[in-house]
Structures are given as structure tokens and as C-alpha cells.
């Protein structure tokens, strides 16, 4: 099984500690990072009432990790925000995800968030303003601001040069940040 380098693991641990100290993580995630839920009396009652199957996400610059079933899983994203790999706390690779330019997944992914980091629902990806079907490379509803000639197209039919981060307006990839 592939492993990430010790430097990557160190950076993830530092990120987790930073997020914890900045109070940017959820109650269950904080317990996973601290590994001692009893230390925070304010968090303890909430942790006891949560279902063990609930998912909690840790956010930093993006979606950094998720906590589910007592396990912390780190997400490694590409420049579009797509989750390309997940690792456990020891750095062991849990899952590899690869996407084609229009967002078709090459392999089954158990991730709730998919292409460009958007939430997937029933084989459709929710972009905020409308749903996107990666298999056809088209949105399922008309463009609400009618940007361009084809109101159903994703990224002006050129996903190598453009993105549509909210489902309303195409941007050049260099204009995303």
C-alpha cells in the first residue's frame, strides 16, 4: 500500500493542531484530534449525544478532513478542489480518486464531496445554483444568469481552460484564486 512521506504526515499533524487551537473544528473532530474528549467539559455532553455514524468535517483553507465512526480521514485536493486521495492518521492511503476533465470519476468513490469539491447527490453534483451531470458534461437546469450561448454547458465546453465554480458564470482557471 502507498504511503505519504513523513513530511506530509507532519504537515497534516501541524494543520490539525493549528485548527484545534484556532477553534475552527467541530466538537467530534476536536475530540479526534485531542484524543481525550474528557478534557473539554463544554464538549463532553455534546459528544455523548452524537450518533457514532455522524460525519463531521474539518475546514482550514479547504475541506481538510472528516471524522466518522471514530476515525479521522484526511482529504488531499487538487487545484480544482476535487478530493484526489484520502489518508488515515498514519499516512496510509485509503482511497484514490481520479476525474476526467468533465468530472467523470474513474473508480467508485465513497466520498460525499466529489468533482471540484462539490457535494454529490444521486449521481448529480450540486454547484450551488444548479445540478451538474458529469456523465453528460452538462448542467440539468438552464444557466440562471444566461452566461454564454449554451445555457447547459459546463465551463464553455472547455474544462481544461475554464471552470464554473458556482454553476452561474464561467471563469478562467487562473482567475479562481
What does this structure look like?
By secondary structure, the protein is of the alpha+beta class. It has two domains: 6-96, no CATH class; 129-175, no CATH class. The protein is 17% helix and 23% strand. It has a five-stranded antiparallel beta sheet with strand order 1-2-3-4-5, covered by helices on one side. A hairpin with a 5-residue loop joins strand 4 (83-87) and strand 5. The protein is elongated, with a radius of gyration of 18 Å.
Please supply descriptive tags for the structure shown above.
alpha+beta; 177 residues; 11 strands; 23% strand; 2 domains; 5-stranded antiparallel sheet
Beta-strand proportion: 15-25%
Number of strands: 11
> In terms of structural class, how would the helical and strand content be classed?
alpha+beta
Listing every helix as H and every strand as E from the N terminus to the C terminus, the arrangement reads HHHEEEEEEEEEEE
Shape: elongated
Instruction: State the major sheet.
Output: 5 strands, antiparallel
Report the total helices: 3
Question: CA-to-CA gap between the ends?
Answer: 34 Å
Describe what is shown at a glance.
The chain has helices at residues 6-21, 27-34, 44-49, and strands spanning 56-59, 63-68, 71-77, 83-87, 93-96, 119-121, 124-126, 131-133, 138-139, 162-163, 171-172. By secondary structure, the protein is an alpha+beta fold.
Detail the topology: elements first, then pairings.
Elements: H1 6-21, H2 27-34, H3 44-49, E1 56-59, E2 63-68, E3 71-77, E4 83-87, E5 93-96, E6 119-121, E7 124-126, E8 131-133, E9 138-139, E10 162-163, E11 171-172
Antiparallel strand pairs: 1-2, 2-3, 3-4, 4-5, 6-7, 7-8, 8-9, 10-11
Amino acid at each position: 500500500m502507498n504511503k505519504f512521506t513523513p513530511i506530509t504526515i507532519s504537515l497534516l499533524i501541524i494543520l490539525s493542531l493549528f485548527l484545534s487551537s484556532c477553534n475552527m473544528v467541530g466538537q467530534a473532530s476536536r475530540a479526534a484530534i485531542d484524543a481525550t474528549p474528557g478534557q473539554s467539559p463544554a464538549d463532553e455532553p455534546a459528544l455523548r449525544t452524537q450518533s457514532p455514524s455522524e460525519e463531521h468535517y474539518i475546514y482550514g483553507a479547504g475541506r481538510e478532513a472528516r471524522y466518522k465512526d471514530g476515525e479521522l480521514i484526511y482529504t488531499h485536493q487538487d487545484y480544482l478542489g476535487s478530493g484526489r486521495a484520502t489518508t488515515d492518521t498514519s499516512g496510509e492511503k485509503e482511497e484514490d480518486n481520479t476525474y476526467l476533465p468533465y468530472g467523470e470519476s474513474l473508480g467508485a468513490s465513497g466520498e460525499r464531496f466529489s468533482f471540484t469539491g462539490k457535494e454529490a447527490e444521486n449521481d448529480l453534483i450540486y454547484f450551488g445554483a444548479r445540478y451538474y451531470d458529469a456523465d453528460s458534461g452538462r448542467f440539468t437546469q438552464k444557466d440562471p444568469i444566461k452566461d454564454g450561448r449554451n445555457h447547459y454547458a459546463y465551463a464553455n465546453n472547455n474544462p481544461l481552460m475554464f471552470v464554473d465554480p458556482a454553476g452561474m458564470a464561467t471563469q478562467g482557471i487562473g482567475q479562481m484564486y
